[in-house]
Amino acid sequence: MPELPEVEEYGQYFARHALRRKIARADVRDERILGEVRKETFARRLRGRMFTAVRRHGKHLFVQAGDAWLHLHFGMTGDLAFYRDAAKEPRFARVVFDFADGSHLAFDDMRLFGVVDLIDDPDAFIAAHRLGRDPLDPKFRLADFRELIAKRRGAIKAMLMSQGVVAGLGNLYVDETLFVTGIHPKRTKLSDADVGAIFTAMRKIVRKPNRKLPREEGDLCPKCGGTIKRAVVAGRTTYFCAKHQK
Ligand SMILES: [Zn+2]
Asked: How close is the Cα of 224 to the center of ligand 1, in Å?
């Protein structure tokens, strides 16, 4: 499943290949991928436009095209493919943008859990869906994070998984953050130092996803030699070190 760092990469890929090319046709091959927008409206509003700016918030990607924004969510198997030769069209292309210069961009999604939509305003979308802060937003400060955490109760893992606190931080990244900071996923009380450590670790992990926590019960902790345990926290399979995560 594409996690936040992969969605960041899709955004860079989109920007590198598909900005500032005139859209000759926005062809919806499978309407099941569409969100609210109708196929005809989608095609009509994008025809003749250019994509001009890419923006990511959590696992959502927004691309400006005139007065509309393309909204992409990659679900389980969503992917982007840019190509010049039409024979290279990916097998599960659900939407294909044909550019006037003969190149193409496809949104490919085998399992159809992704979404392609057209919206008017990403800020309104973020507010309507009550999405929390993006962990990589340079304007997201420790003080903001402290304020968000202070308003909530319950296990730290559940708080970090809540999209209303931090948008797009998946299960693996939350486990890794708690592993690195030595905090037990079920902890409910956090010191100021803990909150600061979580904030720093979370942003670092999302930026450089090299994971250290083994996801196998009974494995040895690479940090302290303790035993890796498995539990269900916030409805999700959780791995943690029984020795150094307190
Ligand atoms: Zn350990």
From this structure: 4
